[in-house]
Design brief:
By secondary structure, this protein is α/β, with parallel strands linked by helices. About 45% of the residues lie in helices and about 15% in strands. The chain has 15 helices and nine strands. Strands 1-2-3-4-5-6-7-8 form an eight-stranded parallel barrel, surrounded by five helices. Helix 1 (about 15-30) packs across helix 9, helix 3 packs parallel to helix 4 and helix 3 packs across helix 14. The longest helix has 27 residues, at about 325-350.
């Protein structure tokens, strides 16, 4: 597999065979989808993972373990505020996820139910291996479950994710199927697998009748064994092969702020959506505009918003869903903070606009 420095993409150079592959994949995509592209957003329930031994993950590093002790968890108001932001900006929730072993099961069900209400649609869960009784508890609120297998090459899998054997995931997918839930998996590209290992992914999609797959371009993390992300041409091949073999599957691709020039090629190869873009950090900036451009270059329509903040009355939005006064007020405060110090700050830092200009784009901004 060709490697490039760190995880940045300056340009994409396709061979003739790769161009043919993309062209075939594009035709198949066009026959089966309407061209919409969205930003997928994962909502993290915690920044800590009790498993913490996947060798590529920042949660496996000592620094992270010291910084985020086992008791660290994200507050509910922060989780719900992010769900309100995602809904407002049409960032589709890819799944609720988080480190293993942080919230109690009862809390997980309550959070899932509330996120489902905020987003006004059933959601996906990526919370590790769930048992059949647990799936049943989640059933009214979820559309599907995700097996975060990371890689399916058997030897590599044991090294990369020693705490996540494949068999329990397979069992969960079978149980999810029996309950009528959709199924998905996540694969990280750049862990040392090769394109020949696509055959394992192909087998799993068929075996478990997956309706969605997320591919992540590895983001190398300091103090892990990895120093490079995968070359874009390699990621493109995985997407195109998947699209050609599975015309109707939903393909989400985890790119990065440093890989924006690859996005139009990933979409042309048949991806439906992209994720892993630090949306609040780049909101309203040149990077966000480049992403909108990339979608246009691929001849597709971006249905999410990364540039303009619509007018929104947070108090009204939150009150329509959350009844607990204390929680409601905390969420509103979070949202106002989020808007002022993250979304609008990024926008202003880029545009160097004064606060009177920025107030035009947002009702509740008191900046
Ligand atoms: S289970 Fe997920 S969060 Fe935990 S170490 Fe592995 S990849 Fe990281």
């Amino acid at each position: 597999m060709p490697l490039i420095g760190k995880n940045s993409v300056e340009s994409v150079e396709l061979s003739q065979e790769q161009e043919q592959l993309i062209s075939e994949a594009k035709k198949i995509y066009n026959l089966n989808f309407n061209g919409d592209v969205w930003l997928g957003r994962c909502i993290f329930l915690s920044w800590y993972c009790a498993l913490g031994n996947c060798d590529f993950c920042f949660r496996s590093t000592q620094k992270h373990k010291i910084h985020f002790p086992e008791t660290a968890r994200r507050t509910k108001e922060s989780i719900y505020a992010e769900a309100f932001i995602a809904k407002t900006l049409k960032w589709k929730l890819e799944f609720l996820t988080g480190g293993y072993g942080i919230y109690s099961f009862k809390d997980l069900v309550e959070i899932t139910k509330t996120c489902r209400e905020i987003l006004n649609e059933k959601i996906w869960l990526n919370l590790g291996v769930l048992s059949e009784p647990q799936l049943k508890e989640f059933l009214p609120y979820i559309e599907g479950v995700v097996a975060s297998v990371e890689t399916l090459e058997p030897i590599l899998h044991k090294k990369v994710a020693p705490g996540k054997p494949l068999l329990p995931f397979e069992k969960m997918l079978d149980q999810a199927k029996a309950l009528g839930l959709k199924r998905s998996m996540t694969i990280v590209l750049g862990l040392g697998e090769t394109i020949d290992d696509y055959k394992y992914v192909n087998e799993w999609i068929k075996k478990h009748e997956l309706s969605r797959i997320t591919y992540y371009a590895l983001r190398p993390v300091k103090d892990t064994p990895y120093e490079h992300g995968p070359a874009p041409e390699y990621v493109i091949e995985w997407i195109a092969k998947t699209r050609i073999d599975f015309p109707k599957i939903e393909i989400i691709i985890g790119s990065a702020e440093t890989r924006i020039p690859e996005i139009n090629f990933l979409l042309s190869a048949g991806a439906n959506a992209f994720t892993k873009i630090p949306a609040t950090k780049i909101f309203g900036t040149e990077g966000a505009q480049q992403i909108h451009e990339q979608v246009k270059l691929a001849g597709r329509k971006f249905t999410s918003e990364l540039v303009k903040l619509p007018k929104v009355n947070w108090a009204q939005e939150v009150s329509s869903i959350i009844t607990d006064e204390n929680l409601k007020n905390k969420i509103i405060l979070k949202l106002e903070d989020y808007q002022k110090n993250r979304l609008l700050k990024a926008y202003k830092d880029f545009k160097k606009v004064d606060s009177s200009n920025s107030a035009d784009s947002c009702d509740s901004c008191d900046d």
